[in-house]
Amino acid sequence: MDNVIVVASGKGGTGKSTVCICLSVALVKQGKKVLLIDCDCGMRGLDIMLDMERDIIFDASDAVCGNCTFSEAIYKNRNNENLYLMAAPFDTENELSPSVFKQLVDSVKDGFDFIIIDSPAGIGSGFITAAAPADRALIVTNAEPTSVRGGIKVRRKLEALGINNIRLIINRFDRKLFAQLGFYENLDDVIDATQTQLIALVPFDIRISVIMQRGVAGLNWSAAASVFDCLALRLQGQRIPLAYRG
């Protein structure tokens, strides 16, 4: 099974990092050992969202520079058994090259059932680094035109990098607001516009954002948890319906 997954978005604010954490927690609940890698160099936030800010001493750049071993740059989350984090460097000048990052991930991936890579938004150098070791990709968009356009650009770039196993997550979906805004006639139009097969539709829930910022991800945080449970199973090859259909 292809177990290294990059999670990307064409623009900021789609909730991509939250999706990374919620998916990782769902996989852990299903008995999987998961490494979550923050690849957003200079803007890292997964450590805060997982209440691990004070735990982090070494980051990915320390591991490749020899300041620590690879295992010393991987930290276990206290709230979620079998969930581990490798933090992004604080400084953009320490951004890893695609080839070095691939070597790093290849060296540790056999110790985990899944590796989830949180890519920086857009298709710049950080995105190319994040995608380098990936077997497959998830594109996170919202159901509005600028986000969809960004998702299309991400898909084309992923394909140019040789990644063709790509699925779409529509995040923060509010049925009432979607109808009021009228950007698209229906969800099928959104999916068609992204040119990517849908794998999950995540309803808007303000509690997710609030709880993430309080660093208690993985507790009984939201009714949307069932969507991520379903997503985790679908990524493992189970043919099950969407947990939420809008």
Which terms would index this structure?
single chain; 246 residues; alpha/beta; eight-stranded mixed beta sheet; 10 helices; 8 strands; globular
Verbal overview:
This protein is α/β, with parallel strands linked by helices and 246 residues long. The protein contains ten helices and eight strands. It has helices at residues 16-29, 46-49, 60-65, 98-108, 125-131, 145-160, 175-181, 187-194, 206-213, 225-235, and strands spanning 4-8, 34-38, 75-76, 83-86, 114-118, 136-141, 166-173, 198-203. The protein has an eight-stranded mixed beta sheet, with helices on both faces. Strand 3 and strand 4 form a beta hairpin. The longest helix has 16 residues, at 145-160. It is globular and about 55 Å long. The chain starts with a strand and ends in an 11-residue tail after the last helix. The relative contact order is 0.20.
Helix and strand topology:
Elements: E1 4-8, H1 16-29, E2 34-38, H2 46-49, H3 60-65, E3 75-76, E4 83-86, H4 98-108, E5 114-118, H5 125-131, E6 136-141, H6 145-160, E7 166-173, H7 175-181, H8 187-194, E8 198-203, H9 206-213, H10 225-235
Parallel strand pairs: 1-5, 1-6, 2-4, 2-5, 6-7, 7-8
Antiparallel strand pairs: 3-4
Tell me briefly what this model is.
The protein is an alpha/beta fold. 37% of the residues lie in helices and 17% in strands.
